[in-house]
Specification:
Helices cover about 45% and strands about 15% of the residues. It contains eleven helices and ten strands. The two termini are about 40 Å apart. The structure holds flavin-adenine dinucleotide.
């Protein structure tokens, strides 16, 4: 297998590197991603995404008429890698670009694609995901938020929870129950809901990182035009699963994992354990080698998925494998960092003794959340065993 890039792809990478160097605002390099309560930061991140879009570096694989470049997926992979290597901030419109956007390309009407896709890319409209409810997480099909079709409108009542970014999102793609009498997977529909519609209340929830990253969202007689339905009425489960597969792929990035692992190696060389650098301790070496092997295995799995995408093969259980492996590995890498740092790992960001500006404990908590979000590890294991390995359902 030839894993090298073609001369044209290498030339594209060089030109892109130059562009990033000239355009990534200095304040954005290594800056904390989102600060949820800081409207100025949100505007800055929108401006950065807009710049990438104007330069043609976003969603390069999408058709031109929807704001893409009709380019092959390898080019987009190179862009994603280079942005991470340059330590650019994550894209504020990621849920639009990676989740609802590809879903609309697959299931949306022509009118929906033309209306929503360009504004997703330009960051004029930010999206959030309204799937989970207080009684419906892993068992998502138990959701109860009700949407009654009255003439040309749905009337939505109910509650969503853990809705990331809802406090500044313009739109929500969500699941609602449209036929309570049907078996639970069959009475669900997929709606696009304008967050400014009267009757919507958003209440931020504070995560253990201290950030209000996600929210409760309440719907009280919220009117949604029928034309905002994606796919067929009561067939939303099919559409929802397409979005979930895209989400699971989005959550696993090899370059990010590699960068975190390099950070741990650096710590292991700098910090001392039993009178010598931690990297020379035989137990630590063994564990670092174990993590490194997992990072390499993840990299080759990502190559295999890239090949599948180039050949237009369905994502299948590859997305679940990716999600399971990468989120658990990221958390284990951060746990290793904390162990190497010992009690320094618990220092507040403001302490003058803090290491790496207090990044590691925050990453440790954040990566734990990603093991749960997008479907927990246990659920991914169920999917892999049942749909991939053909094991019987319990
Ligand atoms: C950081 C973060 C961001 C999120 N963002 C969003 C968002 O933007 N939009 C949104 O809709 N949701 C979001 N979520 C919610 C997320 O999708 C749910 O938390 C997740 O699906 C799990 O559901 P739950 O929390 O209700 O846990 P539960 O489903 O109650 O699970 C509790 C435990 O039981 C286990 N379990 C449950 N069922 C099974 C089973 N059949 N087999 C084996 N084990 C099982 C689970 O693995 C878990 O360990 C987010 C969550 C997090 C942590």
């Amino acid at each position: 297998m030839d894993l090298s890039y073609t001369p044209e792809q290498e030339a594209f990478r060089r030109q892109l590197r130059k562009w990033i160097k000239a355009n990534l605002p200095a304040r954005d390099k290594d800056a904390p991603g989102l600060e949820y309560g800081n409207p100025q930061r949100i505007q800055e991140l929108k401006a950065w995404q807009r710049k990438l879009y104007d330069a043609g570096y976003l969603a390069m694989g999408w058709p031109k008429e929807y704001g893409g470049q009709d380019a092959d997926i390898v080019q987009q992979t190179i862009v994603n890698e280079e942005l991470l290597l340059a330590r650019a901030p994550a894209l504020i419109g990621m849920m639009g670009i990676q989740m609802v956007g590809p879903t609309l390309i697959q299931f949306g009407t022509e009118e929906q694609r033309r209306r929503y896709l360009p504004k997703i890319l330009s960051a004029e409209e930010i999206w959030c995901q309204g799937y989970s409810e207080p009684g419906a997480g892993s068992d998502l099909a138990s959701l109860k938020t009700r949407a009654e079709l009255m003439g040309d409108e749905f009337i939505v009542n109910g509650q969503k929870v853990w809705t990331s970014n809802a406090q500044f999102a313009d739109w929500l793609f969500g699941l609602v129950r449209t036929d309570p009498s049907a078996p639970k997977h069959r009475g669900i529909s997929y709606l696009l809901i304008d967050m400014k519609t009267p009757g919507i209340t958003v209440r931020p929830l504070i995560q253990m990182t201290g950030d209000p990253g996600f929210n409760e969202v309440f719907f009280e007689d919220v009117r949604v035009p029928r034309q905002n339905l994606v796919g067929e009425l009561n067939q939303g489960w099919l559409v929802a699963n397409a979005t979930l597969a895209h989400e699971r792929n989005m959550l696993g990035s090899t370059v990010h994992t590699q960068q975190m692992f390099n950070g741990v190696l650096r710590l292991a060389r700098q910090r001392r354990r039993y009178g010598r650098p931690a990297a020379e301790d035989p137990v630590m070496r063994q564990r670092l080698a174990d993590l490194m092997i997992r990072v390499e295995a993840m990299k080759y799995h990502a190559y295999r998925q890239l090949t599948d995408s180039i050949k237009h093969r369905p994502l299948g259980i590859g997305a679940s494998v990716n999600k399971l492996v990468s989120t658990e590995l990221n958390h284990d890498i951060t746990a290793m960092a904390l162990e190497i740092m010992g009690s320094y790992g618990f220092l507040a960001r403001t302490s003058r003794h803090v290491i790496d500006r207090g990044l590691w404990p925050i990453e440790f908590m954040f990566t734990l959340g990603l093991i749960i979000g997008g479907g927990t590890s246990q659920i991914q294991k169920n999917i892999i065993s049942e749909r991939g390995l053909g094991m019987p359902r319990k």
